[in-house]
């Protein structure tokens, strides 16, 4: 935008609070005419001179749309909201229409003609077709398996931590010759 000589500045949650405050102050004083922002500015902004809100994408939650577009038309002023809607945003767009209880109009912008014209009707899905359940075959009773016997030799001279565990040998039984 700045390359096109439009005075724009960006605001996002990646900035610290001091940086955000500086940007907002500059925008309020019209140092910058365009504020490009994430949802960090969707609430709490009360600037009467905001005339347009452009949604690059639709928010995940319907209420967020209301907060975003509510940044324009403050204090009785007129404001416009524009949303760029693509295939990934279509469901969100339809939820917003339902939430607002009104049909939203479409416009095609010169040089922004998209290929998406709305969702096509779904093709029938035969995978979930209900089929009569098959009769259960009687199953043979399974006999429980006995646990495998441990190899006692495995535990001899096993390293435990930094030490090698070497079991003590049992003392030899006293011989009758002693």
UniProtKB/TrEMBL annotation:
Where does the record place the Helicase C-terminal domain? 1-120
> Is Transmembrane tagged as a keyword?
no
GO MF term set: ATP binding; hydrolase activity; RNA helicase activity
Question: What family does the database annotate?
Answer: Belongs to the DEAD box helicase family.
Instruction: List the protein's name.
Output: Helicase conserved C-terminal domain protein
What's the source species for this entry? Answer: Vibrio harveyi (Beneckea harveyi)
The superkingdom listed in its UniProt entry is: Bacteria
Annotated keywords: ATP-binding, Helicase, Hydrolase, Nucleotide-binding
Supply one GO CC term from the record: cytosol
Q: Spans of biased composition, class Basic residues?
A: 129-147
Q: Give the start-end ranges of region Disordered.
A: 119-160
């Amino acid at each position: 935008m700045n390359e096109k000589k439009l005075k724009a500045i960006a605001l996002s949650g990646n900035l610290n609070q001091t940086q955000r405050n500086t940007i907002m102050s500059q925008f309020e004083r019209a140092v910058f005419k365009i504020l490009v922002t994430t949802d960090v500015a969707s609430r709490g902004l009360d600037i009467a001179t905001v005339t347009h809100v452009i949604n690059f994408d639709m928010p995940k939650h319907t209420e967020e749309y209301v907060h975003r577009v509510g940044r324009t038309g403050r204090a009785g002023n007129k404001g416009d909201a524009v949303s760029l809607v693509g295939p990934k945003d279509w469901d969100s767009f339809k939820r917003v229409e339902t939430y607002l209880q009104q049909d939203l109009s479409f416009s095609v912008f010169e040089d922004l003609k998209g290929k998406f014209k709305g969702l096509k009707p779904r093709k029938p899905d035969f995978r979930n077709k209900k089929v009569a359940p098959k009769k259960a075959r009687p199953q043979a009773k399974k006999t429980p398996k006995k646990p495998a016997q441990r190899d006692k030799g495995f535990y001899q001279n096993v390293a435990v931590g930094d030490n090698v565990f070497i079991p003590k040998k049992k003392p030899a039984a006293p011989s009758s010759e002693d």
